[in-house]
Structure formats: structure tokens, C-alpha cells
Amino acid sequence: MQINQAIATYDRAAVDYDAIMRRYWHIEREPLIASLQLQPGQTVLDAAVGTGLNLPAYPQGVHVVGVDLSHKMLDEARKKNVSADITFKVSDLCNLDFPDNNFDAAASGFTLCVVDYPVRALEEILRVTKPGALIAIIDYCKSRDPEIVKWQELISDAASQLGFPTDKIKWNALMDYEELIYNSKLTIEVLIDNRIESPNPFSCGCQFLLKNSKA
Ligand SMILES: C[S@@+](CC[C@H](N)C(=O)[O-])C[C@H]1O[C@@H](n2cnc3c(N)ncnc32)[C@H](O)[C@@H]1O
């Protein structure tokens, strides 16, 4: 999805986004954030933070920097009740406006299936996090079951162009985590790779815990 289309889509979705996620893609965020083992005083990147569904799960004493392209998603995120210290920034995940080695950890929910260049986005997350940093990802993804992939191929054009619900959530229904994680040659160590397989082609997902293995 082109950047302008992503902004327009998620600006439109912002007010309804949490209800849509609750209904179709609900998942508890606490285990994802807990997997980062954050310590007081650490700074974590939430990429892209959206309406801030991860935010209540961050512990007190941690500084969270939530980036997103959509001002309206960020406006919703500002309404969340949070214990951590939060800063918001409009920034493109594929071209992050932060120095190298800036963050102790990073989290990303349902986002790499939205950006046009997920390898580039993960490269940027690796650049701005410190060597050894943990990176927790939860996302929609292409199934490992070829029968389910046929359905995902069928919905792929509609998911990326029309969205579901129409004009609200748009994503790549064939988001390939095998390519992103195992074939991209990025400097990552995979600590956890959990797949959520489903006969429903909308509901296939994955959860990763990665370690930034750059020198
Ligand atoms: C499906 S939402 C996920 C929001 C949130 N992370 C969550 O877990 O609910 C995708 C988000 O990615 C943002 N986005 C899409 N492309 C982006 C990019 N290139 N850079 C930064 N944010 C982007 C959208 O504005 C939207 O808020």
C-alpha cells in the first residue's frame, strides 16, 4: 500500500479501529509485551503504535516511543490509560527518524502486513535498536497450509484494495514471514516462532520474539 493510501485508510479507520480489532482480530497484548522483559528506565519502540492497543501492557518506569503515519490513529492512542511514559511521533517505519542503537527493545503489532516493504521496515527496527535488543512481533500472516493459502490468494486483492471492513483495514493477505524472517538474511536470532493456523483465511497469524544479533 502506498504511503498516502495507508494514511488515508488508517485515518478513516481510527475511530472504529479498536471495535474492529476486538471483533475480528482480538488478541491479548500483555504476553507480547511481557516477552520483552522490559526493565525500568528502558526505552522501547512501538512500531507502528496505531490506536495504542499495546500501550496499557507496558509497565511503569518504561519509556515508550510510539510511531505511526496516521495522526488520527495517534489521536486515539493518546486517549489510552497507560502506566508507562509515552511519546508519540509521526514517522515512516521504512525510514525511521531515530539514530542507530537508540532503543532497548521494540514491539510491532499487525503492521508488517500493512507496510509495502516489510523487510525494509524490519531493517529499520534493527538499525534503531541496540545489539541484543528483543523485538516482539504479532501479525497476520500467510498460512503454512497450501489449502488455506488458496483462500488467502482469493482475498488478497480485496484485502489490499477494498479493505475489510470496506475502506477501513487494508493489509497484505499473503504477508510472508518465511521470507521476512528466514530468507531475508537480516541480523536476527529467532527466539520464538509461534504460528496461529486457522481454517479462516482472515485469522492466520504469527508471534515472533527476535533478538537483534547485529555486532
Ligand atoms: C493494522 S494497524 C496496527 C496498529 C497497532 N500496531 C495494533 O497492534 O493494533 C497498522 C498501522 O500501521 C500504520 N502504518 C502503515 N504503514 C506505515 C508506515 N510505513 N510507517 C508507519 N506506520 C505505518 C497505520 O497507520 C496503522 O496505524
How would you describe this protein?
Helix 5 links the parallel strand 4 (103-109) and strand 5 (129-140). The model has no long low-confidence stretch (mean pLDDT 97). The chain is an alpha/beta fold and 215 residues long. The chain is built from seven helices and seven strands, in the order αααββαββαβααββ. It has one domain (3-212): Rossmann fold. Bound molecules: S-adenosylmethionine (SAM). Residues 45-137 form the Methyltransferase type domain.
Q: What is the overall number of helices? A: 7
Mean pLDDT: 97
Q: Considering the protein shown, what is the CATH homologous superfamily?
A: Vaccinia Virus protein VP39
At CATH level 3, the topology is Rossmann fold
- Secondary-structure element order, as H and E? HHHEEHEEHEHHEE
InterPro entries: Methyltransf_11, SAM-dependent_MTases_sf
GO biological process, one term: methylation
GO molecular function: methyltransferase activity
Protein name: Methyltransferase domain-containing protein
